[in-house]
Amino acid sequence: MPTNDSLVVEDDRFLRVVGIVLDPTTPAERTAAYADFFAHDEPDFDGYCQRVRKRVGRLFPRDVRLVETQEEMRAALPGSPALVVESLGVGAEELSAGSELRIVQKYGGWPRNIDTAACAAKGVKVLTIRRRANVACAELAFALMLTLAKKLHRLAGRISVEQLNELGYAYKPFDRRHTPNSNWPRISGLRMLNESTLGIIGLGEIGREIAIRAAAFGMHTLYHQRTRLPEAEERELSATYVPLETLLAQSDWVVPQLPSAPATKGFLGRAQLAQMKPGAFLVNVSRADIVDRSALIESLRSGRLGGFALDPLYEEPGRSDDELLGFENVILSPHIAAQPRFNALDDLADMMERLAKELAL
């Protein structure tokens, strides 16, 4: 296989690493920026690149063509044996433009933006990768749910009578001659995930990972999105499709998993928050602006929301005087959901190695 073959890659900010690793013409400024981006977890980014190049053999060096739109992708496809996409669609037009395509790699585990039947008819192999970063986001969603349910953000390390008094828990011992001593501070309002109802808005890559874990916790999962999944996928995920209004009214936990776009900004506003079950929790590890901030604060002030957790923030870096920090039932974390950085680095290395092996066949 000639070493000057091209590779068409969607210009996703993480997929740009493919160009840094494989394309020697990548500007030094970009390489330096990503070395800095990964430095707190991988201080030797150059060493990482060198290790991956050894793993991919003749895939390096490669002319990596980064594309942002469907039109750019179709224009770049002629002559390329492989295409890597995250959200761009791959259908009959793209396959026609890429007459030499042998591989379409989805940067994710579910190729719903790829016409797999059309690819099969053309003899184009579709590859997927279950991204560690998406698993990490699902893990944080559950960490936040458990923290809210058990009030750990308030109680961790608060074990003395004096500390608990400061939180409003007046210590009064039980009559131990007759009773156990569990929850001796008499903390009310603790919750269970088991047997509660989880509403996921958007069963994309991360939404699915959340649904898989919800089943393990014994939760009842509802979901809503524009397009209903096939019944087989619903059974696999133990998820039930319902209208948005039903999801909001019945869910004890609401987790929006929507992309950042004009259509999703303020998706959960006053009307939607008012439809939520009183005392329900809202956990957002997607994009902050999906939830209207003013409506959120109103709902917290009124007591309708049982709690709220957010990662990433409305503005980054955040502010120590953020009004949301004044609520006892709110958790804010500084955009850590997909971490550590090795999730992305390992995903990309595995993906490039698989591409190399498939193209060598």
Provide an overview of this structure.
- The strands form 2 sheets. A 7-stranded parallel sheet has the order 8-7-6-9-10-11-12, with helices on both faces.
- It has 2 domains: 6-128, NAD(P)-binding Rossmann-like Domain (Rossmann fold), CATH 3.40.50.720; 134-151 and 189-332, NAD(P)-binding Rossmann-like Domain (Rossmann fold, 3-Layer(aba) Sandwich), CATH 3.40.50.
- 35% of the residues are buried.
- 39% of the residues lie in helices and 14% in strands.
- The N and C termini lie close together (10 Å).
- It is elongated.
- The chain is an alpha/beta fold and 361 residues long.
- The chain has helices at residues 16-22, 28-38, 45-56, 70-76, 92-97, 116-122, 132-150, 152-155, 161-166, 205-216, 231-237, 244-250, 270-275, 293-302, 342-360, and strands spanning 6-10, 63-67, 82-85, 103-106, 125-127, 197-201, 220-224, 239-241, 253-256, 281-284, 307-310, 330-332.
Short key terms for the protein model shown above:
about 350 residues; alpha/beta; Rossmann fold; 2 domains; 7-stranded parallel sheet; 5-stranded parallel sheet; 15 helices
